[in-house]
Design goal:
The complex is a heterodimer of chains A (307) and B (208).
Chain A (H helix, E strand, L loop, with lengths): L3 H12 L5 H13 L1 H18 L10 H18 L14 H16 L9 H9 L4 H21 L3 H14 L6 H6 L1 H14 L1 H8 L7 H5 L9 H12 L5 E5 L4 H4 L5 E2 L5 E5 L6 H9 L2 E4 L5 E5 L2
Parallel strand pairs in A: 1-5
Antiparallel strand pairs in A: 1-4, 2-3, 3-5
Helix pairs in contact in A: 1-2, 1-3, 2-3, 5-6, 7-8, 7-10
Chain B lengths: L7 H9 L3 H23 L2 H17 L10 H27 L23 H18 L2 H12 L4 H8 L3 H22 L18
Helix pairs in contact in B: 1-2, 2-3, 2-4, 3-4, 4-6, 4-7, 5-8, 6-8, 7-8
The chains are: A alpha+beta (307), B mainly alpha (208).
């Protein structure tokens, strides 16, 4: 007695024209001998015939319009809130608590009349919320930070940030790429000077300690500096264990970009665990070009993209 | 808008770069497919609207992760059908907790093809068969419903199914078979499908 389970599979395939000639022939032979499978074939064909009569329903009016409205709102929100989602404000044990503290400082004195009416509540909500759009923000921030790096050198940040933030609110959403394109030179400077000027800065941030007093100073830091403490805790959370080494890189060699196993943290940073000892040539090379290099001891070797 | 002549690839490339107009064209090109997928999976017009719009929003946010190794529509089908799957599982849990069976939403019934001369009573029988099939589809486990809707109603090929469901070809085939057998079993228990005369279309099989 032949295996009807095998033939039920062939019957299913036959509905979609997926049989090889050999299979088709074998099926035909079997059906001529097996009333149960004949019945099954008939029933499945009837179901298929019925389903074929189902036509598509009309898409409700304004479907696309509503989708695009939500996208426009999303993109607009990202443009007027860059400072709030900056990594510096994420430092510390509690993202939400820190965000609220920073929101308090921001709304108390720094928010100029140039801003559209974003309430404190909605801002902290959007920071604390597990919104995927937050993942996109670091990319946008970099483009904002470039012009700001030049500004923060002289005037106090309190006055510089509203200036750049206000025009951002007015910008058309399509010109997203413009700041990046026009400030490549500017973008270089913060990264280099950060690495050189402030080892103390990193040492401070590297201890995953709380924000507290440093928060007002956060606005005076080079805006493009990755916040090591925050990144470390994000990676730890995503991995389930503390990395032995964490490298924050702005660029990767091609072979790493194509590697399997890229993961991302909750806040949207892409990272990769390298199954290599830290003494390995590649690891040493990466460490040398890293924006941040945290050595914790034993544990996974992790590279994280910062761009 | 002079965008109609742009290929899907071109539109996707532009959308990835932040071009919202390009993305809007992609929405227009794919909205019928995705909305109907959600409709057939959830059986509810209201839920289908939410889920399909949400799928496009997530597609926008996640554009960076689309690498072009499948058609854009296939990728959309994947996003949307998985969202529907999650929705169905949550809904099922809720139903079980409340002990209330979900009534099928008539708004989501597939339109009966018009224009055919039907004998008296035949249209009623057609409605009954359709209703029986809708009930049966609704009673399927979510992952069976997903593969059946994608194959039978959305019309995805086996290759596209493999990409949308992230399954190898062998698994696609066996899952389809099991889903069809499960559906048949439910219809037999229902009693209103196989006992009714065949629908009045040229593709129908003859009665015994």
């Amino acid at each position: 007695m032949e295996d009807c389970g095998y033939f039920s599979n062939l019957i299913s395939l036959s509905l979609d024209g997926q049989l090889t000639p050999e299979q088709a022939s074998a099926l035909e032979t079997h059906l001529s001998q097996c009333p149960q499978c004949r019945e099954l074939a008939k029933q499945l064909a009837q179901i298929r015939a019925e389903l074929d009569t189902w036509e598509d329903s009309e898409v409700p009016e304004g479907f696309a319009q509503e989708v695009m409205d939500r996208i426009r709102a999303l993109e607009h929100e990202k443009k007027v809130l860059p400072l709030w989602k900056r990594p510096q404000v994420r430092a510390g044990a509690s993202l939400a608590a820190c965000a609220l503290l920073c929101v308090g400082l921001w709304s108390s004195g720094l928010l100029s009349s140039g801003q559209s009416g974003y309430s404190t509540a909605s801002v902290s909500e959007s920071i604390a919320a597990d919104d995927q759009s937050a993942a996109d923000v670091p990319a946008l921030e970099k483009s904002r930070e470039a012009p700001q790096a030049a500004l923060s050198a002289a005037p106090p940040p309190a006055s510089s940030t509203p200036d750049t933030a206000a025009p951002a609110a007015v910008e058309d959403s399509k010109s997203l790429s413009q700041p990046e394109a026009s400030e490549p030179a500017g973008a270089e400077q913060p990264a280099v000077s950060t690495a050189q000027q402030a080892p103390g800065l990193f040492a401070q941030a590297a201890q995953p300690e709380e924000c507290g007093a440093p928060v007002p100073q956060a606005f005076s830091l080079e805006p493009s500096a990755p916040d090591s403490g925050a990144l470390l805790s994000s990676v730890t959370e995503a991995l389930g264990t503390e990395p032995g080494t964490l490298l924050v890189l702005s660029e990767l060699p091609q072979e790493l970009e194509d590697a399997d196993g890229w993961d991302s943290t909750q806040d949207g940073y892409a990272f990769l665990v390298l199954d290599l000892p830290s003494s390995d040539g590649l690891c040493q090379q990466l460490a040398a070009s890293a924006l941040v290099c945290l050595e914790q001891g034993d544990g996974p070797f992790v590279v994280l993209i910062w761009n | 808008m002079a965008r109609c002549t742009l290929s899907e690839q071109e539109l996707v490339a532009r959308a990835k770069a932040g071009d919202q107009d390009a993305f809007e064209q992609l929405v227009l090109d794919n909205q019928a497919r995705i909305y109907n997928l959600a409709l057939r999976m959830t059986g509810s017009a209201e839920d289908a609207l939410d889920l399909s719009q949400e799928a496009f929003l997530n597609a926008w946010k996640g554009l960076g992760s689309f690498k072009g190794d499948s058609a854009f529509s296939t990728w959309l089908y994947r996003l949307a059908s998985n969202a529907c799957l999650d929705f169905l599982r949550t809904r099922k849990r809720r139903q079980q907790t409340l002990g209330v069976p979900l009534a099928l939403d008539d708004d989501s019934a597939p339109p009966i093809p018009a224009g055919e001369e039907l004998q008296p009573g035949a249209r009623l029988e057609q409605r009954e068969r359709q209703a029986a099939l809708r009930r049966a589809l609704d009673a399927l486990p979510p992952h069976h419903k997903q593969v059946l809707v994608l194959r039978e109603l959305s019309g995805l090929s086996y290759q596209e199914l493999s990409q949308a469901l992230d399954l190898d070809m062998g698994t696609v085939k066996s899952r389809l078979t099991r889903a069809r057998l499960a559906l048949k079993k439910i219809l037999m228990e229902d009693g209103n499908f196989f006992s009714a005369p065949p629908s009045n279309s040229s593709k129908s099989s003859k009665r015994k």
